[in-house]
Design brief:
Blueprint (H helix, E strand, L loop, with lengths): L4 H12 L14 H8 L18 H10 L13 H6 L5 H14 L9 E6 L10 E6 L2 H20 L16 H12 L1
Antiparallel strand pairs: 1-2
Length: 186
């Protein structure tokens, strides 16, 4: 006997409650607009044209090389293998779609994710022995990877990245910071 689907949904719902703002995308006075307008950091008034240019075929090619095979598909059923095996054939259509997203906005349908409950071990009847893995659209991942590369480069050029911060940065690892901390303690 395993945990019921209803119990899994209820447990994930408890994790979600109170932690995520409501989806106000596209509404006037959305929380995102309020946050952006309240920023007083000097880079906000900076020329952001380096972030807002059309997505290039080179950016798409670079990101496609970073995609990994053997990952789960989302609700649309598209896996990274589909994009990888298509080679350069899909780069121009992807460029058109991504540039439309930049110009016209991001569809909420692309934000849909699937949560899979993976058993970690021990008693399968206890929810604590499961972890949630969220799977999203691979096209959304490619788009996000392009934007992340732009934003990281932009922030690095302006000295806005904390030198000691290792999370989500290329060539930075938590183990590096652990080594430094351990060395300082000893």
């Amino acid at each position: 006997m395993a945990i019921s689907k209803a119990d899994l949904v209820a447990s994930f719902q408890k994790l979600l409650e109170g932690q995520c703002p409501s989806n106000t995308a596209g509404e006037q006075g959305s929380s995102t607009d309020q946050v952006v307008s309240s920023l007083s950091h000097p880079f906000v008034s900076d020329d952001c044209s380096t972030l807002n240019y059309d997505i290039t075929l080179d950016e798409i090619s670079q990101v496609m090389r970073r995609l990994k095979r053997n990952k789960s598909a989302s609700l649309d059923g598209i896996k990274a293998e589909f994009l990888l095996d298509a080679g350069d054939m899909l780069h121009v259509p992807l460029q058109i779609v991504f540039n439309k997203l930049l110009q016209q906005g991001y569809s909420t349908s692309l934000s849909t994710r699937v949560i899979h409950a993976l058993h970690k071990g021990a008693n399968a009847l206890q929810f604590e022995n499961y972890k949630g893995i969220t799977v999203g659209h691979v096209l959304t991942k490619v788009f996000a990877m392009i934007l992340e590369a732009r934003l990281s480069s932009w922030a690095k050029e302006r000295g806005l990245r904390a030198r000691g911060k290792a999370g989500f940065r290329k060539d930075f690892r938590t183990t590096d910071n652990l080594y430094i901390l351990r060395t300082l303690i000893e």
